Amino acid sequence: MKKILFFLLTLFVFTACDSKDDDPAAANIVGIWNIDKYQEIEPDGTVNDTDLDVGYIEFESNGDFTFNFEGFPDEGKYVYDEANKKFNLTYNDDPGRVRTYNVVTFTAKDLVIEKKEMSTYPGEEGVWTDRYELKKR
After folding, report:
1. CA nearest to 87, candidates 71, 76, 72
2. Tell me, what's the pLDDT at 96?
3. Residue 16 forms part of a structural domain
4. According to the model, what pLDDT value does residue 54 have?
5. Is 8 among the domain residues?
6. Is 54 part of any domain?
7. 123-128 long-range contacts, Cβ below 8 Å, gap at least 24?
8. 85 conformational bin, left if phi > 0, alpha if psi -120 to 50, beta if neither
9. d(C-alpha 40, C-alpha 9), whole Å
């Protein structure tokens, strides 16, 4: 009986110490997310990155967002498609401009999103990737 009680107590202690920071279900997008790192990945795999404070994304509970990158803010509406792990951002200045960001990581404190775009511009043909690593304030 003592062995069973010890086993149950040990199991309870380890289960109770589990961190919610890594639980996607505990993550809430609403709030301000600092852009901790930005990478532009060229079609040939070349990575241009910066880990400077380049901006933030603020998601509001009413579906509005502000995407401030390098001092240039864009605003609009966002929809998070949890099933497909995608954000769709529709910009106010161009309602036809919808950008889709794939969610790579989403926890209570960390968000990593990527946007891929095809370029047909001479000398820059191929898929370009913008990757944002964000930390919640």
Report:
1. 76
2. 78
3. no
4. 85
5. no
6. yes
7. 124/42, 124/43, 125/43, 126/42, 126/43, 126/44, 127/43, 128/40, 128/41, 128/42, 128/43
8. left
9. 49
Beta bridge partners of 40: 48, 130
Whether 79 and 68 have beta carbons less than 8 Å apart is answered as no
What was the pLDDT predicted at 13? 39
Taking only the tens place, the pLDDT of each residue in 49-104 is: 876 778 999 999 999 999 998 888 999 999 999 899 998 999 888 877 789 999 99
What is the identity of the amino acid at 94?
A: D
| CATH code of the domain containing 62 | 2.40.128.280
Burial of 127 (0-12, 13-18, 19+ CB in 10 A): exposed
pTM, full prediction: 0.76
> What is the Cα–Cα distance from 9 to 49, expressed in whole angstroms?
48
Confidence band, pLDDT 50/70/90 cuts, at residue 3? very low
φ, ψ of residue 84 to 5 degrees: the values are -100, 0
Mean pLDDT of the chain: 82
C-alpha–C-alpha distance, residues 67 and 16, integer Å: 37
